[in-house]
Design a protein that fits this description.
Largest sheet of chain B: 3 strands, antiparallel
Number of domains of chain A: 1
Radius of gyration of chain A: 20 Å
Strand content of chain A: under 5%
CATH class of chain B: Mainly Alpha
Order of helices and strands of chain B: HHEHHEEH
Strand order of the largest sheet of chain B: 1-3-2
Structural class of chain A: mainly alpha
Distance between the termini of chain B: 15 Å
Number of strands of chain B: 3
Radius of gyration of chain B: 15 Å
Shape of chain A: elongated
Distance between the termini of chain A: 34 Å
Oligomer: heterodimer
Structural class of chain B: alpha+beta
Number of domains of chain B: 1
Largest sheet of chain A: none
CATH architecture of chain B: Orthogonal Bundle
CATH superfamily of chain B: Winged helix-like DNA-binding domain superfamily/Winged helix DNA-binding domain
Order of helices and strands of chain A: HHHHHHH
CATH topology of chain B: Arc Repressor Mutant, subunit A
Largest interface: A-B, 17 and 18 residues
Number of helices of chain B: 5
Shape of chain B: elongated
Number of strands of chain A: 0
Number of helices of chain A: 7
């Protein structure tokens, strides 16, 4: 056996082990798009709550108007659905480009480990909303999302773990300063996603 | 050459080594997923899995999902050891050729 043969054999084994255990067809672009949707959503939400005044003061009084709350809820739901659809579409496209299928045992495991914290968090937040506990919604979104990313990161790029850590830290800060909920929410879902997405895009698409 | 004796006969075939790599990296893997990942044909994959099973390098767990049979494979402790030894032998061969 020639030396090059052994090298290529060893590296093909390594890549096979990685490919079989990690789903790496996540596209950085979907992170960027999710961030942009979140920024648009946050902007619309901000306008809705604060009107046209542009001062980001600490808020002691929370939103209580049920009509405004319903609108905020709809905006959040639209942002979530758009992000998910774009993410799924770009992932399937990316997988096809690599000649893989998007639906395989690894992506299934990734999906399961992501959804357990996400669905728990989603239901928890709905319960909080129903009980009129609005101030904890922004931190809970960030914290549960961060936990979901960390639990999913075992089956995908390890950078996802760091994104998750940042989301959790932001979530804890948001819990400390509930009046600035929308700012932390925008940072976590908007800015962080765009930064992460661009890093991934330039790292893997060039 | 002495190092060649350290190579595992069971891993002489490329597909068998590939199957083992996947099973070492994962707790378990099913037949269809292996087939897709390794681009192998049914018969080829089945015969090499059989050979690894005979060596007791892998364990087989047959279940049904609904009416469809689902066969899960996982690496045994013996198999993991043999795989590690085989890789070490490969590395040793490189080292020896360098010196």
């Amino acid at each position: 056996m020639q030396e090059e043969d052994i090298y290529s054999e060893l590296s093909s084994i390594r890549s096979l082990m990685e490919r079989s255990a990690k789903f790496i067809s996540l596209s950085g672009m979907s992170g960027i798009m999710a961030g942009i949707y979140a920024l648009i959503g946050a902007f619309l939400g901000y306008k809705l709550v604060y009107g046209n005044s542009y001062d980001l003061d600490y808020r002691n009084n929370y939103v209580n108007d049920s009509e405004v709350l319903a609108k905020l809820f709809i905006i959040a739901a639209i942002v979530l659905i758009c992000s998910l659809l774009t993410g799924v579409w770009l992932t399937i496209r990316e997988a096809h480009k690599k000649g893989e299928t998007a639906w395989n045992p690894v992506s299934r495991r990734l999906l399961i480990s992501l959804s357990i914290p996400l669905i728990t968090g989603g239901l928890f937040i709905l319960i909080l909303l129903l009980r009129g506990n609005y101030s904890i919604v922004a931190p809970a979104c960030l914290i549960f999302y961060g936990l979901a990313l960390i639990s999913g990161s075992h089956y995908t790029l390890s950078a996802v773990k760091w994104l998750g850590c940042c989301e959790i830290i932001l979530g804890l800060f948001a819990a400390l300063f509930p009046g600035y909920g929308i700012i932390f929410w925008t940072l976590g879902f908007g800015i962080l996603h765009i930064i992460y997405g661009s890093l991934m895009h330039f790292k893997y698409n060039q | 050459m002495k190092i060649l004796e350290q190579f595992d006969k069971a891993f002489e075939n490329r597909l068998r080594l590939q199957i083992m790599s996947v099973l070492v990296a994962n707790a378990h893997y099913d037949f269809n997923a292996l087939k897709e990942l390794l681009n192998a044909t049914d018969g080829n994959l089945a015969s090499h899995l059989k050979a690894l099973e005979k060596e007791e390098y892998i364990t087989v767990n047959k279940t049904f999902i609904g009416r469809k049979p689902n066969t899960q494979y996982s690496a045994s402790a013996t198999g993991r050891n043999a795989f590690k030894k085989h890789l070490e032998a490969l590395e040793n061969l490189i080292k020896q050729q360098k010196s």
